[in-house]
Amino acid sequence: MTPPRRPGGKLVRPYVVTDGRSNPTRNTLDLVTLLIAADDLPLTGLSPEKRALMELCRPGALSVAEVAGHLSLPVSVTKVLIADLMDSGHVVTRAPVPSARPSETRILQEVLDGLRARL
Questions:
Q1: Using the 8-state DSSP alphabet, how is residue 102 labeled?
Q2: Phi then psi for 37, rounded to 5 degrees?
Q3: Can you tell me the distance from the alpha carbon of 81 to that of 119, in angstroms, rounded to the nearest whole number?
Q4: How far is CA 85 from the centre of its chain?
Q5: What is the pTM of this model?
Q6: Each residue of 64-78: pLDDT tens digit?
Q7: How far apart are CA 38 and CA 107, in angstroms?
């Protein structure tokens, strides 16, 4: 017996979106990798999911996790789509800005000593 269809559920299975592929052509994508869409390339010939991804990224940079959330697709499927768009030159990636490195203990101690001297 087939379970009832969920309202709002996707009609297309993820493997159809990726043409049956389960791995991206590039393994350099992280959840926080930023995606920047090229403005000068036409969207003709792209699948609806790739076109939606491009339209999401055109106003500015979005992370892989954000794009997957907006498209309601699994991250693995989104990575396959992004890798395809990178191969065609539609999307450029940029590593996220690294978090601030912790300061040296000596500098923190000098700041603490300076604050104590003022109080």
A1: P
A2: -85, 140
A3: 58
A4: 12
A5: 0.71
A6: 999 999 999 999 999
A7: 43
- pLDDT tens across 80-113, in order? 999 999 999 999 998 877 766 666 788 888 889 9
Cβ-count burial 88-104 (b if 16+ within 10 Å, e if not): eebbebeeeeeeeeeee
Residue 33 pLDDT > 80, yes or no?
A: yes
* β-strand partners of 37: 91
Q: Give yes or no for a contact between 95 and 66, defined as CB atoms under 8 angstroms apart.
A: no
Listed residue (35, 97, 83, 89) closest to 63, CA to CA: 35
Q: Please count the helices (runs of H) and the strands (runs of E) in the chain.
A: 5, 3
- For residue 54, the SS3 value is helix
